[in-house]
TrEMBL record:
One example of a Gene Ontology biological process annotation: potassium ion transport
PROSITE patterns: NA_SULFATE, RCK_C
UniProt xrefs under PANTHER family: BASIC AMINO ACID ANTIPORTER YFCC-RELATED, RESPONSE REGULATOR
Keyword Cytoplasm: no
The name this protein goes by in its record: TrkA-C domain-containing protein
Transmembrane segments annotated in the record for this chain: 31-49, 56-75, 95-123, 135-153, 173-195, 438-454, 461-479, 491-511, 518-540, 546-572, 584-604
Compartments, record wording: Membrane
Organism: Marinobacterium stanieri
SUPFAM superfamilies documented for this protein: TrkA C-terminal domain-like
GO molecular function: monoatomic cation transmembrane transporter activity
Length: 606
């Protein structure tokens, strides 16, 4: 073993230990790897930072922009709503629909691209369903990796082993030669992910960023809103008919805030405080905020009917209306004024529906409650008005719910975004354009068409994931340049010796799978494939089952977050630890190994 080999092995070992310890952020560890490789002399400093210019890193960055376009136009939210509708309140049923979708996409396009496109959909789905993101994101990533096993173009290792067969004068693999084995692994893998892995996945509800910004449900609880939301119907003969809420003095007389009006079955798109000139009609159904006593009085005096307010209508309302928590600072001009006097409805288009003082919820009276420095107010209004809250000099925004990010800012461009997405998929699956060109064009089209603006595009880039991927890519080059990879493979061949063909497949599967946890599956396959082919020919074994075993093994990048860009994409969003991937991924690798060893000889006899 040379000094360079030893240096690479030590550096790889230290990197793994740092990842497992979780003492240092993974993206910082990746940067330390870059610096260490640059100083080692094994590769040049330029090669050490070459990962930041790798096509896969650029492709992922562009896919973040495409995904943001789907989010900002409402397509991600609509897809999440459909999945939530068919999946209901069952995590199992939801995964039964979600995993085949991502696997099918991965069979015809990059698995990284499939996950990047569905990531905003799953995060939106998680927030609305209440299922923790870690319960959905790792199964999503693993199903995408398995989906790549289904076709010849599904993943680079399949193409590499087929090309190796062709260059050796043998018949290359057909488009669907991998499908039977890949499909079996997908079915068994889905059963494992749904029935077993859910017990191994982390239970935490949200990432750190989400915990800092409470969702709507948390704000409902914090301000005790649930019991004060009511649904009222305007009966024929009611004095409220043809009056605006202001004219009817609902807020000043009854302490009732009208949140929204349903007319002919559909909620009006904005809150009543914003549309102060909206007149109520007979048969209108109003969603209002008030205590029970005031509601009873209002219904008696104004001839209204109090109806049930199901959760489904609250969910419909949340698409157009939301909440924000703000602080009254000491220098604010609002201090000492009543809620009525500050006129937030007229100034900001938002209504005060809750006040906390000294961490305690206090009774809110529209005409008499005076605001004090340090009060936290809960404001209700349209999402558009909540976005503009930062312009107020008299209030400090404490929390805007993460649901705000799901509200379309360019909803009218949804058909354009769908067209761009469809064109990108057609170009990638048909081979008209290479993947990188198709995705870059799609990202540019999203920006130029107004589906996402430049500010939103830049903010969509997940720096942690990009740095982690770019920082670890040069490790493969260092292992190859130092001879460490060749050293490992040659020792494996020597250990195999004259063993049976099945043992040959098992050994190559294991070494390929292990190597692919730390370097790219493409680099692993490039190194192992020629060795596997030569060994099979030397032993007089049909190369097809051996080469397929190598290709399948290269796609079992389940055990570490750095094994594949797919895993790295969900790492931050799911708030996973390094060990989470090993705990869930290693059993899945063993299942893939067992299925490959059983099915491959049946389909491709030795």
């Amino acid at each position: 073993m040379t000094t360079d080999m030893l240096t690479v092995f030590v550096l790889l070992g230290i990197t793994i230990v740092l990842f497992l310890s979780d003492r240092i952020r993974m993206d910082l560890v990746a940067l330390l790897v870059v610096v260490s490789l640059a100083l080692s002399g094994i590769i040049t400093p330029a090669e050490a930072v070459s990962g930041f210019g790798e096509p896969v890193v650029v492709m992922i960055a562009a896919l973040f922009v495409v995904g943001e376009g789907l989010l900002r136009t409402g397509i991600a939210s609509a897809t999440g709503s459909w999945l939530l509708k068919v999946g209901g309140d069952s995590e199992t049923r939801l995964l039964l629909f979600l995993l085949p979708v991502v696997a099918l996409l991965s069979a015809f396009m990059s698995s990284t691209g499939a996950v990047a496109l569905l990531l905003p959909v799953v995060m939106s789905l998680s927030r609305r369903s209440g299922f923790a993101p870690p319960r959905l994101l790792m199964p999503l990533a693993f199903a995408a990796l398995i989906g790549g096993m289904l076709t010849l173009i599904g993943t680079p290792p399949n193409l590499i082993v087929s090309g190796q067969m062709r260059s050796s004068g043998l018949e290359p693999f057909g488009f669907f030669d991998f499908t039977p084995i890949g499909f079996a692994i997908l079915v068994v893998g889905m059963a494992y992910l749904i029935l077993v892995a859910r017990r191994l996945l982390p239970q935490h509800q949200a990432t750190a960023s989400e915990q800092e910004s409470p969702g709507l449900r948390t704000l409902y609880t914090r301000y005790d809103l649930s019991r004060q939301l009511h649904k009222l119907e305007v009966r024929p003969g009611s004095p409220l008919a043809q009056k605006t809420p202001a004219e009817a003095a609902l807020r000043s007389e009854y302490e009732v805030t009208v949140i929204a009006i349903a007319r002919s079955g559909g909620w009006l798109p904005s809150l009543i405080p914003v549309l102060a000139n909206t007149r109520m009609r007979y048969r209108d159904q109003m969603l209002v905020y008030a205590d029970d006593a005031q509601i009873e009085r209002l219904c008696t005096e104004q001839s209204l009917i109090c109806l049930d307010c199901p959760a489904s209508e609250i969910a419909r309302l949340e698409k157009n209306a939301g909440l924000a928590e703000v602080l009254v600072p000491p220098e604010s001009k609002l201090c000492g004024k009543t809620v009525k006097q500050v006129r937030l409805r007229e100034r900001l288009g938002l209504s005060v529906i809750g006040i906390r003082r000294n961490q305690e919820l206090i009774d809110l009276h529209f005409a008499s409650t005076e605001l004090e420095a340090g009060d936290t107010l809960l404001l209700a209004g349209s999402w558009e008005q909540i976005r503009n809250l930062n312009r107020s000099r008299d209030l400090v925004v404490l929390n805007t719910p993460p649901e705000l990010e799901e509200v379309p800012t360019h909803g009218s461009r949804a058909p354009v975004a769908l067209g761009i997405l469809g064109a990108m998929l057609v170009c990638m699956t048909s081979g008209w354009l290479d993947n990188l060109s198709a995705i870059l064009l799609a990202a540019l089209a999203m920006i130029l068409s107004g589906c996402v603006n430049l500010t939103e595009a830049y903010r969509s880039l997940n720096a942690t994931s990009l740095i982690l991927i770019a920082g670890m890519l040069p490790m493969a080059l260092a292992m190859e340049r130092s001879g460490a990879l060749d050293y490992l493979v040659q020792h494996l061949v020597n250990l195999i010796g004259d063993s049976s063909p099945l043992m040959l497949c098992a050994s190559l599967f294991l070494v390929t799978s292990v190597l692919s946890q730390f370097i790219s599956n493409t680099a692993t396959t490039v190194l192992v494939a020629p060795v596997a082919l030569s060994t099979a020919q030397l032993l007089g074994v049909n190369p097809e089952p051996v080469m397929i075993s190598v290709a399948i093994a290269a796609s079992t990048a389940f055990a570490t977050p750095i094994a594949s860009p797919v895993n790295t994409l969900v790492l931050t969003a799911g708030n996973y630890r390094f060990a989470d991937f090993a705990r869930v991924g290693i059993p899945l690798q063993l299942l893939a190994l067992a299925l490959t060893l059983v099915l491959t000889p049946l389909l491709f006899p030795f």
